[in-house]
Amino acid sequence: MSSSVLRYLTENRERLLNKLNEFLAIPSVSTDSSHKKDIVSAAQFLHAYLQDIGFDKVEILETGGHPLVFAEYNQAGKDAPTVLFYGHYDVQPVDPIDEWKSAPFQPDIRNGRLYARGASDDKGQVFMHLAVFEAFMKTEGKIPLNVKVCIEGEEEIGSEHLNAFLENNKGLFAADFAVISDSGMIGNNQPTILYGLKGFTGIEITVNGPDHDLHSGMYGGAIRNPLMALAHILASMKDKDELVTVEGFYDDVEPLAAEERKLIEAVEGEDYVASTGAPETVSEAGYTAKEHTMARPTLEINGMYGGYQGEGTKTIIPASATAKITCRLVPGQDPEKIQELLEAHVKKVAPSGVTVTVKKEKLSARAYKVEPNHPLIQKAAESYTKAFGRETVYIRMGGSIPVVESFEALYHIPIVLLGFGTPEDRLHSPNESFPLDSFDKGMETLAYYWETFKNE
Amino acid sequence: MSSSVLRYLTENRERLLNKLNEFLAIPSVSTDSSHKKDIVSAAQFLHAYLQDIGFDKVEILETGGHPLVFAEYNQAGKDAPTVLFYGHYDVQPVDPIDEWKSAPFQPDIRNGRLYARGASDDKGQVFMHLAVFEAFMKTEGKIPLNVKVCIEGEEEIGSEHLNAFLENNKGLFAADFAVISDSGMIGNNQPTILYGLKGFTGIEITVNGPDHDLHSGMYGGAIRNPLMALAHILASMKDKDELVTVEGFYDDVEPLAAEERKLIEAVEGEDYVASTGAPETVSEAGYTAKEHTMARPTLEINGMYGGYQGEGTKTIIPASATAKITCRLVPGQDPEKIQELLEAHVKKVAPSGVTVTVKKEKLSARAYKVEPNHPLIQKAAESYTKAFGRETVYIRMGGSIPVVESFEALYHIPIVLLGFGTPEDRLHSPNESFPLDSFDKGMETLAYYWETFKNE
């Protein structure tokens, strides 16, 4: 009976929230090298917590990049199954900083939500798992199954060193199945199990023209403008029907089966206009917005810049222009091949009079899909439903979790994607937050789930 | 005889250069409101200098924007003609600051060039005129003609308040002709008289989508990306033949006459590839780069930004995207009409799913052309040739000097555009500089020119 576990979580709620706030207060931004020290602090926080809980073995492992926190609990005995819990302690950058209502690294509770960078993605959800392990140890003296913990610091920069590290330490992470909470529910209090994730890849395009900014009056008419050249290149990659016009982009895309379109149709989708404030939704011709986000590949410009951005006017032809592009991929698409296609397209359409460079981002991952009827997933769904009091739905999502692809490729084990975030969490944006309701019911869900592994 | 004047300029060269450096050291950036104090300091420097020279009346006049420095010298008597000298003491912003080899406001002499923001545009050339007036006063006790001085502080932001101020104070600036040194020579030591200037206008385009940055995985496929929308809008405004594709843009353009194409052909043009470092020149289909820059209208993107610009990757769909655009106009084109055409085009091509705003920049000017054979211009050409030892050429230029249009409209007087800059000056760019050779020969040219007004 996990009633004692649940009582422990309730009675210790305030202390646990304070401890989570300590974790959230560490600005562990992985993409910015100036935060290296904070990255290490976040890893040390987890190391200390896992030792307090009573894991048998806790280590901070060097990966060649940001360190990885590893822990092992094996007191459930040889017959008990072993779960590999994965999460990440690094967070996205916070800019534009002035749009935050409270400082991103000073956690603040407003209207039942905890506001902080990483509150939902992924520090908050990582902490919930550790808190539940603590509850089992403090109340029942043991956790119902053996546990391996793998919490990395490079998820937001594409888990650059994780894959090689897993390959070189395959035995260390061997388990019967994996559980990851780095995703969200399709709606508030709507238990949601992810059975599909998109893959991911990206490039950066740089257009160089003159070797210095030029007076637009004296040189306009003789020199190709890198900003206009970039606009032509970018506009040629996607049409107004949101179709990617890069040759070969859709070649390996697994078609969307009729049954699956029914399944997606059945899911009560997010009201994108309400949650984003955009004037209307747009999606790939022939597909609904739900289908496009869940099961069709996308190409997005994440950032673009060149020339004068200050107050007023500066009449120049700038020396260069840059755009950052990422694609979300579906089963069948190969990230490296997509990068090749993007580069070939850019080189093909690049106008004369400028030099165009394509940098292939290292981060990339294949898409992932699992069978929703697997017993381990069904158990999770039942625990989920029990805690939230609503039927669990099964969805695919546009987000990418590179480690899922790594686990799949290395261990061929079931991966349970058990996420407690909500559409209002504003992941990667100013004012990221996580509902305290999900914090409570999510921990309850995990307690029920581990409970099911007793006496097996 | 101006030999004494020339001797004075030679003997006082070092002192005059030091004084110019004081002027250049004032960061009078007009587009940035944080430099308001420096703007005033620059005006005060000129006020003090003009008083020292011995002008009869020197004033700093409030225009509603940055102040205007006015001075009057009338000791040449009623029969002598009056010249209106115009210049500006404001300068362009300095960014990207890290590309400057020496600090923009710490003048530095290297390889016979004076490096500083404003060295050529326009503080250096304004100072030359004042130094020559000083030389006449100190050696001959008088200047050969009556002089009115009008040095403004808003040229780099489109002389926003100057036109209204001139209209309201028409008598104050009334003169027989005007002289302006805010331009350059077509080549080093190549005496050049400008007989045509382009007009100018601009807009800023802002594309708004979601009300906050979105996770590109969770929302890619449902929400229009403002950066891609902006790329489509911009790409639709100019084709790869450098033809502006905005409907009506060329309607009022005065055709380029065969004789004028010959005249332009005769001018030894700038080696754009050598001076800009661009891979090659590009120009409007059917016109040479020289023709396009001198006598055909242009549209340039001066700046563009949106989304993530930092280190690494940030997988977002940004909330907004912005582009700054300016056009250079030729005789016949009306700046306000062009702004209307640009706005109509942007609204027409704007895709759904985003809100597009067009801000019309206040700064604008019509193009200008004058008869090269006017005696006042011929006198200037002869003085120019005498000082530099080479025949003077007559050209049109892509640059815009709004005040020329104002003087023309208000006074209908000949305007002598007597510029001493060179193609290597890097106006509006990092490492702006001005050759000391032009400093010396330019002042010599002015001395000869004023000399011709003696005993008239």
From TrEMBL, chains A, B:
Q: Name one GO molecular function term.
A: dipeptidase activity
Name-wise, this protein is Dipeptidase
- Every Peptidase M20 dimerisation domain range: 195-353
Entry annotated with the keyword Protease: yes
- Entry's InterPro entries? Bact_exopeptidase_dim_dom (IPR036264), Cyt/Met_Dipeptidase (IPR051458), Peptidase_M20 (IPR002933), Peptidase_M20_dimer (IPR011650)
Q: Which organism is it from?
A: Tigheibacillus jepli
Q: Which UniProt keywords apply?
A: Dipeptidase, Hydrolase, Metal-binding, Protease
Provide the E.C. number(s) assigned to this enzyme.
3.4.13.-
Q: Does the record's keyword annotation contain Zinc-finger?
A: no
- Signal sequence extent: none
